[in-house]
Design goal:
flat; five-stranded mixed beta sheet; alpha+beta; three-stranded antiparallel beta sheet; single chain; 14 strands
Length: 403
């Protein structure tokens, strides 16, 4: 209710502004505001967040928390903050549960409140929009959903469901969360974040429907394409056998040890006075940069090794299930993750008719499992037109799978 009235909730300050606790008023701190303008202008000039952070550190400018060293993440947070154009977006994060109090970025799971012209802006909207455009191009797929190592793997359908109309990922939402009729549904992120106008044709799909359709489709796939699936499993096993990430990690560790020895020798040369301070600093920075790159490569390789082991476990489980299709009476997360590459919700038919009630499971070997409502399964065009006026829950419940 406070958000609806335009009252700030949980405001804990913003770099470049002063906040009056008594009057709840936000005013510009001109000295820090100039630093904010500098960040936005440099970014538009083509300078990255990391370089801007280094420049501010060299200039001796204090961080928002009073530190001496600026971080790239701090710059990124400022560059995407709508408060610098005088607006306020409340509900950027949400709490997963009341026990851990862990918070995550809100990608449509909870409601947001956007207040325009709430306070005096530091930069123009044109400059802000230009920065967001550049950020989106540089970020690539990270802007369409959460990263794989974060929240995206909490649910089996995360980062796998795509809108058949706008191409965005689908996000999980809880309808009627505080009532007995609570239901988990998946909805287009663009629609959830920006409203129905951005993606008018997509429909929220109940999670139970997705699970039921996959169980049906899995059985059809095993019956009709058993040889195809067997060949696919054989190919995956061969790829996993050829995986050489462990060898790569061993080599990287040796390279890391070699650089550490060079750093030790460099320190001795400096202490013995055989090189001056400038030479020492230059060579140290060079070796240290190389060491950081190696550490990142090692971390990535270890993640790949863990991912490979996880795939092996899922593959073995899938093979055991595949021997007897009746052994999967209900949805199984491991089989879904092992078999399905992505799922597309909704489609536009050749004659231009919009049908949001379709599900296409795209397998990792290219095979497709299609689920459509019984009306579009016929050639009756009038029945197809009934889609637009049919009840949402009913339409999802009559989906039939075919290969």
């Amino acid at each position: 209710m406070k958000k609806d009235r335009g009252e700030l909730i949980g405001y804990n300050g913003c770099y470049g502004y002063n906040y009056n606790l008594e009057t709840k008023e936000i005013t510009i701190n001109e000295e820090k505001a100039n630093i904010v303008r500098y960040m936005f202008e440099r970014y538009v000039e083509g300078v990255g967040s990391s370089t801007i952070a280094k420049e501010l550190t060299v200039k001796g400018i204090k961080t928002p928390k009073g530190g001496d060293k600026w971080c790239e993440s701090t710059i990124r947070g400022i560059l995407k903050n709508e408060k610098y154009i005088g607006d306020v977006l409340m509900g950027k994060t949400f709490t997963i549960d009341p026990i851990s109090h862990k918070r995550l970025s809100n990608l449509g799971e909870a409601d947001k409140h956007y207040l325009k012209e709430h306070h005096q802006p530091i930069i123009s909207k044109e400059l802000f929009d230009r920065v967001q455009e550049i950020r989106t191009k540089r970020a690539g797929n990270r802007e369409t959903g959460r990263r794989n190592d974060n929240y995206s793997k909490k649910y089996p359908f995360s980062s796998k469901l795509y809108c058949g109309f706008c191409g965005s990922l689908l996000t999980r939402r809880n309808w009627n969360a505080n009532r007995n009729c609570a239901k988990a549904v998946w909805q287009c992120i663009k629609r959830a974040k920006h409203g129905k106008e951005e993606c008018p044709h997509c429909k929220a799909i109940p999670e139970e429907i997705l699970e039921d359709c996959f169980v049906q489709g899995y059985r059809i796939l095993c019956n009709d394409n058993r040889k195809v699936v067997e060949n696919f499993l054989e190919k995956i096993e061969n790829i996993l056998k050829e995986n050489t990430t462990e060898t790569i990690v061993t080599k990287l560790e040796k390279d890391k040890e070699r650089i550490n020895k060079k750093l030790a020798n460099l320190l001795e040369l400096n202490l013995e006075g055989k090189i001056n301070k400038e030479q020492y600093t230059e060579k140290f920075d060079e070796l240290n940069t190389e060491l950081i790159k190696l550490a990142n490569k090692i971390q990535s390789s270890l993640k790949e090794t863990n991912r490979t082991e996880s795939i092996k476990l899922r593959l073995n489980k899938f093979k055991s299930f595949f021997k007897n299709i009746d052994i999967m009476p209900k949805f199984d997360k491991e089989i879904f993750e092992c078999l399905i590459d992505k799922v597309i919700i909704g489609e536009t038919l050749e004659d231009g008719i919009i049908n949001p009630y379709t599900i296409r499971f795209i397998c990792k070997n290219g095979t497709e499992i299609n689920c459509k409502d019984k009306f579009t399964a016929t050639s009756d065009k009038q029945a197809t037109n009934n889609i637009a006026t049919s009840d949402n829950q009913h339409m999802w419940s009559v989906l039939q799978c075919y290969n």
